[in-house]
Amino acid sequence: MEDRGGVIHVTARVKDDAVARALEESRGDRFNRGTTAHFTWSGRSKYVKVAGVHATTTSARSKMFRLELEVEEAPQDSFLEVSIGGKTPADLTESALRTVLFGERNPLADQYMGFAAEIPDPLAPLRQSPVSEEIVRPISELLVTDILVGTGRARSIRAFRLGVAIRGRRSLTLAWEVPNRYSNEPVTVRSISGEVSI
User: What's the CA gap between 92 and 34, in Å, rounded?
Assistant: First the structure.
């Protein structure tokens, strides 16, 4: 993967036919200029449009792909700029994470404003389709990064520690950089710790 700011180049070897077809279809056709989506990696996420997909067959079951992704302005959630019930957008993100990951009570539920501190459960796909133990942590980090950085609730993920499963529960420590609204604001890092079930 090579990030040049406005363009990201990705090279990957693909052995699964379904994945290869999905990548080939993302380039679009003469009526569609290419798929737009979040591209998430290593604690970061950018909204991109697929500008080019180049495939080279290297063996009967393997293809090399080169993707060219153009970075675009991501659609923003209007709640990212709103304070509700004395809570800043960063407070709302932290509350939403504590509720969805650790099962803590939503602090705005009593005021019938719980929707303001809600996010989709980033770990739900792992509960629905379990994967082997050696890839639980990297996939978990990718899913959490996508839901936080991809939606603009965080600028980057600073730390992600997921423990081994003990009776179906894992310890999780997560730290993220809060997005600055103004260029002269100091960097703020938030963190949470608790137990999740995966």
Answer: 34
DSSP states along 92-126: HHHHHHHHHHH-PPPTTGGGT-GGGG----TTHHH
pTM of the complete model: 0.76
CB distance 157 to 140 below 8 Å: no
Q: How far apart are CA 92 and CA 79, in angstroms?
A: 9
CA distance 15 to 6: 29
Mapped onto helix, strand or coil, the DSSP state of residue 161 is strand
Distance between CA atoms of 161 and 195, rounded to whole angstroms? 11
pLDDT (tens digit per residue) in 168-186: 899 999 999 998 878 888 9
The domain segmentation of the chain, as residue ranges, is 2-71, 78-197
Which portions of the chain are predicted below pLDDT 50?
Answer: none
Write down the residue that tokens 């363009």 correspond to: 7
What's the pLDDT at 77?
63
